[in-house]
Amino acid sequence: MLREDGHVLDDGTTARLGAEHFVMTTTTAAAGLVMRHLEFVHQAHCPQMAVRFISVTEHWAQFAVVGPQARALMNTMLAEPLTDAGFPYMACGPVDVMGVAGRLFRISFSGEHAYEIAVPARYGEALFRDLVARAETLGGGAYGMEALNVLRIEKGFITHAEIHGRTTAFDIGMEKMVAPGKDCIGKASAARPGMHGPQREQLVGLRPVDAASQISAGAHLFDAEAPALRENDQGYVTSAGWSPTLTSYLALGFLRDGRARHGQTIRLVDHLRKTDVPCTVCDPVFFDPKGERARG
Amino acid sequence: MPVVSLIAKTPLAGHLPVTVGTCTLAEVMLGPVTSLSPYRGREQALSDALMAAHGVAFPAPNRVAQGDGLRLVWSGRAQAFLTGAAPGAGLGDHAALTDQSDGWAGLHLSGTGAEAVLARLVPVDLRAPAFDVGHCARTQVQHINALIIRTGEQAFEIMVMRSFGQTAVHEITEAMRGVNARAAVRGG
């Protein structure tokens, strides 16, 4: 979703549950902002449209069930078993889970083969405890926000660390998601001179040359031979973490003309924490680049 | 009809009722709650459909339309909550409907001093006759988004978003203690 000035407002999902019924998710931080934006667009730009909005966040308790055994686990709780063909990646719809009318979405910020199961909030505690118990029986268990953050960095999925209000769809590599066949808010502004091109700081992945060198968000990027001074600043790091899957520190950041510089070595300098780490610039999707896990 | 195998819990199970001095805070079971948002120009058609299905018309701003075992509570611009009954047939032709039943925690504050308790937490003037029985306000309880209904001379129903329920109990209970302590100091 873009602002009128062509920068990214928020990153979320929209599920079509009926011909005239959509459920939109947003980032947590921007939920109120997106609600306000929808109301403003409707009231100020297109009041003739027959559409209404309301938050349903509180009514639903929703949980992510992720990993290679996600479908097997869900099938122990659903009245109708899932198949890959019957409920493919990005499918959504009503389900009966343990006798409760719920909703199922096959999508996840983890990048795994995964589902999000929603039930009315009165059943939330009971469903979560049951899901965790079944997951543990299968050798898994509950996972938290830090683990999710590692998974999403490995997959190059962005948060407001990356869409911080000064980045465009072009910058984050999503310009192809702006449909060419129709207009939308922000499209014209995003086409202005200076809003795209090699001078823009573009989303890249960064791996320390020495995999065990800790790298930090907030560090700035410099050419290998350049002094780490403001005038030589090439970009900055937005997210970083240790990946147990790839046994390396990984980071996401923005680098001037970044997409043309994959394979280059640059200096990652954190002036606050006094670190200076050579890194390789690469694609921000470090793991499962074809998205085969999610579609399996 | 499938057998429900999940245990249901109310928003404030185990936290209420609380009595401090003359005031009591208790949980209210709201029953089904459905939001009704008439599309532009369909307000009268929705009101007619509500009258046919439930015997009440769409309420004016800040008013509750009381029916037989159900209410229509004005909840904001072009919006009202139908509580106590599932929505009847035909309403969806004129309005957007959503199920809000599990999204709200219902609290009932009653007793001498209830008005004084809420005065500490709510920016809107809740004194009669500015806020009479059958009036409602979409406002805040100590920064928590709330829908407040006056149900009696010293009785209010307070709806807050479900996840804020326990915080609302805490804030209102603190205000109850404050009002009660002042009354005790005055010897009243």
Characterization of this structure:
The complex is a heterodimer of chains A (296) and B (188). Chain A has 6 helices and 12 strands. Chain A is of the alpha+beta class and 296 residues long. A 6-stranded antiparallel β-barrel of chain A has the order 7-10-9-8-11-12. The two termini of chain A are 28 Å apart. Chain B is an alpha+beta fold and 188 residues long. Chains A and B meet through α3 of A and β7 of B.
Short description:
The complex is a heterodimer of chains A (296) and B (188). Chain A has 296 residues and is of the alpha+beta class. Chain A has helices at residues 31-45, 70-74, 124-137, 145-154, 187-190, 292-295; strands at 13-18, 21-25, 60-66, 92-97, 100-105, 114-120, 201-208, 220-223, 235-243, 248-256, 265-270, 275-282.
Question: Terminal Cα separation of chain B, in Å?
Answer: 57 Å
Low-confidence stretches of chain B: none
* Percentage of residues assigned to helices of chain A: 10-25%
Quaternary organisation: heterodimer
Strand order of the largest sheet of chain B: 1-2-8-11-10-9
Q: Rough shape of chain B? A: globular
Sketch the major β-sheet of chain A: 6 strands, antiparallel, barrel
| Biggest contact | A-B, 28 and 28 residues
Tell me the fraction of residues in β-strands of chain B, as a range.
25-35%
Supply the number of helical segments of chain A. Answer: 6
Q: Order of strands across the biggest sheet of chain A?
A: 7-10-9-8-11-12
Mean pLDDT of chain A: 96
Secondary-structure-based class of chain A equals alpha+beta
Straight-line distance between termini of chain A: 28 Å
Radius of gyration of chain A: 21 Å
What share of residues are in beta strands of chain A? 25-35%
Structural class of chain B: alpha+beta
Q: Name the helix and strand elements of chain B from N-terminus to C-terminus, one letter apiece.
A: EEEHEEEEEHEEEH
Gross geometry of chain A: globular
Per DSSP E runs of 2 or more residues, the count of β-strands of chain A stands at: 12
Q: Could you state the order of secondary-structure elements of chain A as H and E?
A: EEHEHEEEHHHEEEEEEH
